[in-house]
Amino acid sequence: MFHAPEGSVILPTRVLACRILAAASLCLTALSLPAVAQSDDVTLRSYDGGVSLSGTLLGFDGEFYRIDSEYGELTVDASGVSCAGVACPSLTDFVAELRISGSDTIGRVLLPALIEGFALREGYESSREESGPDATLYTLTSTETERTVARFYISSTTSDSGFADLLADEADLVMSLREIRAEEAEAARDAGLGDLTEAKWSRVLALDAMVPVVSSQNPVETISLRTLTDILAGRTRNWQALGGPDAPVVLHLPTESSGLAQSIGDRLARALPEAAEGQVLRHDSQEALAASVAVDPFGLGIASFSEIGLSKPLSVDGPCGFSLSAERGTIKTEDWPLTAPMFLYLPARRLPKLGRDFLAYTASEPAQNVIRRVGFTDQAVEDVPIAHQGSRLANAIAVADGEEGLAELKRLRTELAPLNRLTLSFRFEPGSTQLDAQSRANVARLAADIEAGLYDSRTMLFAGFSDGAGPASANLVIARNRAEAVRDAVIAAAEAADPERLDIRTDGFGEAMPMACDDTVWGRKANRRVEVWLD
What is the model's pTM? Predict the structure, then answer.
């Protein structure tokens, strides 16, 4: 499979045509390519008439043709060829089209808001049409020429369906509330769509969170992650275990194919046992889930933070005495243990220029305002002074181990007191030194801000932390190594930055300021992190 790098020129001359065909191991000495079959619907010819290429038109982005020929899938610069055939698009009245499929939460609420915000910024009028039970069409029209410039086709179903549509060439972008599965990534590579596990082929549009919710009639206010896992696994079935009434727990969960349900499975419990199935109610939408929990005095749901509705959110606690609530701040810093990134995956192919402009817009400050307005947690980096982190320091004091632990906590307080924490955290894949998906996106975001000079003449401290397992001295070393690894990743990504304009330092504080109890895998992961602090 041959894909041209963005901005390259293909087939303007016979020599370049030969190089392309050589890449497919099919360079012909005559430099004249025969038509392949009667099913071909376009023929592309160089302007000197010396080279022709026939195939099925797969796409046109206003600048490049993408065709399926006997030599595989090729991308051809429209400026170097003429197009003949029934499927040839108009070069003057080109309409950019994007097919976007996947998560209902993203497709029903977030993406439409971003499209409307993009249209407003660009001076387009946007119109919305429901073209099916799960399908929406947005048409963008130029206010100056009254010409249609773009159509966004949105299929709001599940993350599973989004990746399936991409592999079937029925979608250009995938909306997902989970990371791509290994088998999906392998199928995408085999289909020539690139390695979608790489950070450059995905965007984190916003952050959501999974939140345990109950009815306002339920007296329970907090739940531990371990207890939540036990309920999902069927080991705990009665509210008495949580200090509630003597009544069975009725679980309210999203449909099994939804990205949110799969995230629940990834983080808390892979599957519900048969014994618990009679106490599990599945819901097609987050709105329906929250509404059902709100009127069920014995119900326990796991809902999207953006769609809690009239249900009551529970705080998360643990045996060490920590308690944490799902709030914008704790979600943005990923201190909340069940944060859920909202992904947009894109394959290794060119999108229309307007589509690329839309993707760039999603990371802009105006887009972050839109994200906040519709109830999700945006990606704009903010400073948080240490004075606003009293609960974290109080938790740290409560679990400080002996004089050595208190001394390290005092050192932390001295080092960080003059600084502000950025709302960027870096965490790692379980059992790995590799950053997780959200953290890889944070590396790119911080690197771009450094390149833009946002932190010039300031001191940036990468502070590493560990969980409480193992000797304190070893944990200090591990924490420093983590801080150095993240620093190196950010510096490597900030290729255009001047290192002399920013003072970058690292330090490690070991287990001095835990975010969660160490009694669960997720508690330990929350504690193994790197934070960024600025003077």
Answer: 0.78
